[in-house]
What we know:
Number of strands: 11
CATH topology: 2-enoyl-CoA Hydratase, Chain A, domain 1
Strand content: 15-25%
CATH class: Alpha Beta
Helix content: 40-55%
Radius of gyration: 18 Å
Order of helices and strands: EEEHEEHEEHEEHHEHEHHHH
Amino acid sequence: MNQSEHLLVEKNEGIALVTLNRPKQLNALNKALLSELSEVLESLRDATEIKVVLLTGAGEKAFVAGADIKEFASFNGAQGAELSKEGHLTVFNVIEEFPKPVIAAINGFALGGGLELAMSAHIRIASNNARMGLPETSLGLIPGYGGTQRLPQLIGKGRALEMIFSARMIDAETALNYGLVNQVVPQEKLLEAAQKMARSFMKNSIVAMGYAIESVNAGLLEGSLGYDVEVQAFGDCFETKDFKEGTQAFVEKRKPHFPGA
């Protein structure tokens, strides 16, 4: 097993299990974790012995409970847009375009950037205690790591906008009904189910699967301008009073009172 500060990487019989390892912070995404994940993905892409990648979170509570809000609460618009753009280019788009199957094993909360990370994977399997949502509008933000694009692709525009507008979580069975996840299993069976699926893929041509990923993405990303619009709109949110109030309320553990500006 390879271990960096925020990631555990275990390679076994063609499968790479990548565990996001910040359990005390519910595996919240910060700059350091995303940088490490980018490096690991690059190495796994080139590792000929690796056929499938599994992504999961450490502990039993969370896959990823969101982004580390304290890290960007003081950002301005340009910094917010850069944060979004860098995430797209170094991690989220890399996973979506990865030439080998990537399966997200969602073991608990997958919120904000955590759900966006899971959505960038090709397949999602959830434990029955998983909870998923995009709470960004409760902070005066929008999803900035591909959520406004990938969620409608997966569950349809109406349901996607309802999830974004309400900022509420949905449970694993609702996610399965929506088509957001492929399968729901008991938590103790989650990694076993993900590995079983990975092994079923590995019986077939990995090269062909790489071409399939490229082809499916081409059809979905024809209007990839949407990601550019998201990056700019995400940055614009950082200039609003609502964002300042939303993040301040989060840090102070109180309900926000948005001025609407």
